Known about the structure:
The chain is of the alpha/beta class. It contains 8 helices and 17 strands. A hairpin with a 7-residue loop joins β13 (293-300) and β14.
Amino acid sequence: xxxxxxxxxxxxxxxxxxxxxxxxxxxxxxxxxxxxxxxxxxxxxxxxxxxxxxxxxxxxxxxxxxxxxxxxxxxxxxxxxxxxxxxxxxxxxxxxxxxxxxxxxxxxxxxxxxxxxxxxxxxxxxxxxxxxxxxxxxxxxxxxxxxxxxxxxxxxxxxxxxxxxxxxxxxxxxxxxxxxxxxxxxxxxxxxxxxxxxxxxxxxxxxxxxxxxxxxxxxxxxxxxxxxxxxxxxxxxxxxxxxxxxxxxxxxxxxxxxxxxxxxxxxxxxxxxxxxxxxxxxxxxxxxxxxxxxxxxxxxxxxxxxxxxxxxxxxxxxxxxxxxxxxxxxxxxxxxxxxxxxxxxxxxxxxxxxxxxxxxxxxxxxxxxxxxxxxxxxxxxxxxx
Length: 385
């Protein structure tokens, strides 16, 4: 780390953000704890504030609690609900980071004349390859906990002030250091749920927000258009879903496509859910966008998806097409496509439906062959990236 300065640390009450604050304090930084109030039952809110207070008292640092419930409802929760009703599968954590967490933390440091901001994300920060390029993001050293995928929508405004103390640590090291430092949260379990749902099934959450009118019955069909069953609202289905379809068959069916415009759910056999091509819009580049072209990189189509190699075609500053070397399973509109050059995060965008009927294997080979001849040098070697 650079010479110690002052830093505002976003504290959730968990072990990661708490150790981030503790590590910085030990290194001589002046720490300001910030806790954001997000939509949750009052008992959960009280427990979180109590937990964060114990941590800040243990560390001997100030704490400010900021109520972001209205902003979170408007910018994260409502779009989350609307996405399911449009046949998409949203990722609220990806949206929350640039729109809520880092935006508000950045505003806080500016208002209070604090130099830096920090979180407990498992990601590494570094200078870009060219002078004046700005800051870049790399995967965290712990491949099991790397969270760069969730930060692909970050901009240079926040990154220029950011510090990520856990980027070089593993989760096991974090827990061990938290225990050794006597942090009250060192043994807290990992949260595996969406923070504003608190254990509730997302389908029930959507129905609570929009009413049972969303339970609009429609047909479950196969690729030939043959009706195989009936659904009770498209919000209850996601790409790749196998259970709950109510279709009697010797082989399982999986949700292949959701068509909100005609209120249909399309199913297919497992092998039918593999695809090579992914389109993404509203793409955010961590550095400056490269010129139009084709580049050999890797991409993830969901958080737990192992990045796979392929060709990234830059169609415009915010639109890309990715063609994987090998077909990937259950590409899901509404999720994010994050692109990497090795461990370096290039950026990401929202997966959209393929604009024309899916290419068959022969057509995909032709398209891939055309792009192979257009491949430029590795994207990270470009002067603009």
